[in-house]
Amino acid sequence: MRSSSAVVGLILGFAASLPAAEKAEPVRMGCGIMTFDTVPGWGLDDAGKPQLGPKGTHGGVAVGKDGSIYVSANFGVVVFNPEGKVLRRFITDEYTMIHDLKIRDEAEGEFLYGARNNAREGIKFNAQDGAIALRLTYPEEAGPKPEKFNPTAITVAPNGDIFLADGYASNRIFKFDKDGKYLKHFGVAGNGLKEFKTCHGMVLDTRSTPPRLLICDRNHEPKGRLLHYDLDGNFIEEVITGLGMPTSASIQGDYVSVPDLHGRVVILDKSNTIMAVLGHNPDPAKGRSYAIPQDQWIEGIFSGTHGSSWDKDGNLYVQDWNVSGRIMKLVRVKN
């Protein structure tokens, strides 16, 4: 286990002072092999307005095998091409409030998996036409139905087993088979070593063999942390501490991006050493703030980073928890 307490406060890079509503230049951030340039205006319409409204963003990002970028906003899911143009939308009531989003290439095609916290379910749907393939509600076999069930994260094992984290309620993680049959649950609320104090994000960590669950324990005190569990729900280790409020994680190769609600993205390597801190917001009043309108966005500075995903070239797509609906593309700088 490595602690980031002494490192996470560093600002690695610099930020432009122009709001995103004005003409901005790309901002370089990060360091070494994890250096990125922002793409000003990416994902905005021809009038320069966000396309993730009208209710803002509180979701995730997933990149398909053809490079399409799927972003869940409060009002549904918007699909962009790599240049930031909208390809299609899923915006009926079935797709609202998807808090976490994953994509998986399966025999029948690509499918999106979403954790819908306010709808109290997990969902699986076709990435092309939006056809619903599976719904995961609270399993009766797990015991009496609770008053609250608010899933915040979802991920899928190599064999198709599905893990759904009830991060805003019981802090349990529910395991289902690929057909939605309940298998088991694990986890307990608390601030101890093997307890969750908001299991907010979760991803299949393919940096390990066999793969593990990498879980974001967002509100652990004194600082947020990442944990490893095996696919049977057994605690393995505390991976890293001192991360502020880690909201989610995305894996590419040996690297993992971890958005922090305080307004930054932390990049870790295979040994879980911090490689870079991106877009750090030095203003504590604006980091972790939902109510930053577009005219107050600053190129290269984040507010409440919530979701991220890599494309095949190592570029990052980062979503802010934001009233206006903010999604940013960071292009990896090749040495």
Show the helix and strand layout:
Blueprint: E1 2-3, E2 28-31, E3 34-38, E4 61-63, E5 69-73, E6 76-80, E7 86-90, E8 98-106, E9 109-116, E10 121-126, E11 132-136, E12 153-156, E13 162-165, E14 173-176, E15 182-186, E16 199-205, E17 212-217, E18 225-229, E19 235-241, E20 250-252, E21 255-260, E22 264-268, E23 274-278, E24 305-310, E25 316-320, E26 326-332
Parallel strand pairs: 1-19
Antiparallel strand pairs: 2-3, 3-26, 4-5, 5-6, 6-7, 8-9, 9-10, 10-11, 12-13, 13-14, 14-15, 16-17, 17-18, 18-19, 20-21, 21-22, 22-23, 24-25, 25-26
In short:
With 335 residues, the chain is mainly β. It has strands at 2-3, 28-31, 34-38, 61-63, 69-73, 76-80, 86-90, 98-106, 109-116, 121-126, 132-136, 153-156, 162-165, 173-176, 182-186, 199-205, 212-217, 225-229, 235-241, 250-252, 255-260, 264-268, 274-278, 305-310, 316-320, 326-332.
Supply the key terms.
single chain; mainly beta; five-stranded mixed beta sheet; five-stranded antiparallel beta sheet; globular
Overview of the molecule:
- With 335 residues, the chain is mostly beta strands.
- It has strands at 2-3, 28-31, 34-38, 61-63, 69-73, 76-80, 86-90, 98-106, 109-116, 121-126, 132-136, 153-156, 162-165, 173-176, 182-186, 199-205, 212-217, 225-229, 235-241, 250-252, 255-260, 264-268, 274-278, 305-310, 316-320, 326-332.
- Strands 1-19-18-17-16 form a five-stranded mixed sheet, with no helix packed on it. Strands 2-3-26-25-24 form a five-stranded antiparallel sheet, with no helix packed on it.
- A hairpin with a 5-residue loop joins strand 10 and strand 11 (132-136).
- The protein starts with a strand and ends with a strand.
- Residues 1-21 have low confidence and may be disordered.
